[in-house]
Amino acid sequence: MSIESILGATVVLALVIFVHELGHFLVAKWCDVEVHVFSMGFGPTLFSRRWGETEYRLSAIPFGGYVRMAGEDGADEPLTRPERGFSAKPIRQRAAIVAAGPGVNVLFAFLIFTGTFFVYGENVPVEAPKIGGVIADAPAAEAGLQSGDVIKSLDGVPVTTWEDLADRVRQSEGRKLSLEVDRAGQPLTIDVSPKPRPERDYLGEVVGDAYMIGVERALEIHPVGFFRSIELGARYTWGFTRLIFETLARLFQGRVSASDLGGPIMIAQEAGRRAASGLEPLLRFMALISINLGVINVLPVPVLDGGHLAFLLFEGVRGRPLSLRYREIAQQVGVFLLVALMVFVVFNDISRIVAG
Predict the structure, then answer these.
(1) Which end of the chain is less enclosed by CB atoms within 10 A, N or C?
(2) Residue 146, beta-bridge partner list
(3) pLDDT of 236 strictly over 90
(4) pLDDT bracket for residue 337 (50, 70, 90)
(5) Residue range 135-173, pLDDT digits in tens
(6) Dihedral angle at the C-alpha atoms of 347, 285, 135, 172, nearest 10 degrees?
(7) What is the 3-state secondary structure (H, E, C) of the chain?
(8) Could you tell me the CA-to-CA distances from 274 to 209, 251, 289 in Å, in that order?
(9) Identified catalytic residue from 4, 21, 127, 328
């Protein structure tokens, strides 16, 4: 793994975690909760400085962070004013503090998407049958098709749109096709034989097989104005948030393979690949990771924000909190589940590397 990949992953994860913890911190301050520690990272402290009542730390392990508030379960710092403790606040304020982390992660993603659309424009699919990319080892690559080629006809019949090209390749049933290609003004004839490949929907679930040649549609960059960039930022943020929830639902239903889950190694590889492609792909990848962090944290798993919200909901319905002993047991179970998940996704990452 390259240094670029490691640095890219560290920057991406550190920023989205910082934003997450900043959400908890700012809303805690707004609710007048005494905050003792704001730490970026876990483990030994590399640097710390105290401003007011809060100690700000930079710790050795960058993939995490925490905000330690007075009056939390297990907090041993003395309270200067009991009414400023976390547990002394109304349920609605405690819920707002807990929910602020995931909420700010989603807001951060929206700001990134909006900014990148405003600065870099929108990628719009080209209507013409123009190839934007060729998948390695696919029939198109073996036949010699290249990015930028425009398909003019198929078996002598003109092709006018990308959808027309895709439909006729699917209907070929694997027979050899003769393509008339315009390559930078030079006419070429290229024969290619489609092969059946698993066809997946937008969530990656296999929905059948289809004949394909392994080409990707070309895109054009269209500049967008300020208000259009806000609209696109909101649409992409909502779309990816819904996508992650739907993927998790299908994962629990067994419709999406758990082997597709990735961990820190995959994040590092992808961050390095995006960083090598430019700032825009890296920023949009960061937005996607931020949404993932926000969604994962609202799951009702003890030790995650969603687990804390579930405890608060229980307290609101019951009229008093669950006993500390049961909360500690639940959190231990949550820690075990998270560690098991981490081991599993790292195993997936290593398996993908070994498999090439």
Answers:
(1) C
(2) none
(3) yes
(4) confident
(5) 988 999 999 999 999 999 999 999 999 999 999 999 988
(6) 100
(7) CCHHHHHHHHHHHHHHHHHHHHHHHHHHHHCCCCEEEEEEEEEEEEEEEEECCEEEEEEEEEEEEEEEECCCCCCCCCCCCHHHCHHHCCHHHHHHHHHHHHHHHHHHHHHHHHHHHHHHCEEEECCCCEEEEECCCCHHHHHCCCCCCEEEEECCEECCCHHHHHHHHHCCCCCCEEEEEEECCEEEEEEECCEEEEEECCCCCEEEEEEECCEEECEEEECCCHHHHHHHHHHHHHHHHHHHHHHHHHHHHCCCCHHHCCCHHHHHHHHHHHHHHCHHHHHHHHHHHHHHHHHHHCCCCCCCHHHHHHHHHHHHHHCCCCCHHHHHHHHHHHHHHHHHHHHHHHHHHHHHHHHC
(8) 30, 26, 13
(9) 21
CATH 2.30.42.10 applies to domain 124-221: yes
Domain extents for the chain?
90-121+232-355, 124-221
Which residues is 151 bridged to in the sheet?
181
Could you tell me if 214 and 104 are in contact, meaning their C-beta atoms sit under 8 angstroms apart? no
Q: Which residues contact 341 (CB under 8 A, 6 or more apart)?
A: none
pLDDT digits (tens, 9 = 90+) for 165-221: 999 999 988 899 999 999 999 999 999 999 988 877 666 667 778 889 999 999 999
Read off the tokens for 113. Answer: 């998407």
How far apart are alpha carbons 73 and 69 in whole angstroms? 9
Those residues whose C-beta lies under 8 Å from the C-beta of residue 328, and which sit 6 or more positions away, are 73
21 is catalytic: yes
Buried-state track 103-125, b at ≥16 Cβ within 10 A, e below 16: bbbbbbbbebbbebbbebbbeee
298 by Cβ neighbours in 10 Å (0-12 / 13-18 / 19+) ranks as buried
